[in-house]
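Collaborator request, handled under Task 6.
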Amino acid sequence: MPSLLTLTFLLPLSLAATTPIISYASYSTANCTAPIITTANVAALACVNIEDIPINSFSAYVSSGACEDATTSPLLSLYTEAGCVDGTVVESVGLGAETECFQAQGVTVVSLGVECA
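C-alpha cells returned to the collaborator:
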C-alpha cells in the first residue's frame, strides 16, 4: 500500500498529464519584447492572481498537457479583478503549443484563468 507521502507526489503528476498547463508572460512594450513584467503557469480550471500592472502585450502557449475532450482546446482568459471574477474578462485567447504574442495596449491584468472550450 502506498504511503500518504507517495500519493501526495503522484497526484500532481497525474493531474499534469491530463490537464493543460499554460505558460504566460506579460510585457510593458508592444510585440512581446523585453522586459518581461510577470510570468505565470496556469492549469485548466485554476485561477492565478498576478501583479496589478498595466501591460502592452503578452505571450502564452500550452507548455504541457491537453484537454481531456479532444474537441476542445485551452482558452486563456485575462481578468481585471483578482480571483477571476465573472464579468471582468478583458480578453480570451485560444492557444496551442507554439508561443503566440497578443497586443494588450495598457490593460491592467490582475488574474488569469484557463478552461477547455
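The cover message to the collaborator said: "Residues 1-17 have pLDDT under 50 and may be disordered. The chain has one domain: 4-116. Please let us know whether this matches your experimental observations."
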